[in-house]
Amino acid sequence: MTQMMEMPRVQTCTVSGCGYNHDGCTAFAITIGRASSECDTFVEGEQGGMGQAMAQVGACKRAECVHNTDLECHAPAITVGAAHDRADCLTFEAR
Predict the structure, then answer these.
(1) Cβ distance 66 to 17 under 8 Å?
(2) For 11, which of 5, 23, 29, 77 could close a Cys bridge (C-beta 3.0–4.6 Å)?
(3) How far, in Å, CA of 58 to CA of 72, rounded?
(4) Could you give the CA distance from residue 16 to residue 35 in angstroms, rounded to a whole number?
């Protein structure tokens, strides 16, 4: 049986226009996308989330990131904010 690893937390999200951001990311888990490390979970115009900021990184499509192994993030925590897109993983580091 494979032991589940703990998923990294979304430590900070400064994207105020996201429906999951209520004083922090309230999505259960987010996905980091391929282009520009964008947060694929970003949603505008809708309200969502679990009510408290406890989001984790469920999947990461940026295989060329130093924190990525087998499309899973192994950083201790990540920060999400504006960069190339309105919501990007600012913890991304190219190998």
Answers:
(1) no
(2) 77
(3) 7
(4) 21
Encode 45-61: b = buried (16+ Cβ within 10 Å), e = exposed.
eeeebeeebebbbbbbe
Structure confidence by residue, pLDDT tens digits, 40-84: 999 998 899 988 989 999 999 999 999 999 999 999 999 999 999
Q: 22-43 b/e with 16+ CB inside 10 Å = b?
A: bebbbbeebbbbeeebbbbbbb
DSSP helix, strand, coil percent of the chain (3-state; round to 5): 5, 35, 65
| Strand, coil or helix: 37 | helix
What tokens appear for 6 in the block?
A: 């703990």
Neighbours of 66 (CB within 10 A): 13
Structure tokens at 82: 């504006």
Instruction: Provide the terminal-to-terminal Cα distance of the chain, rounded to the nearest Å.
Output: 30
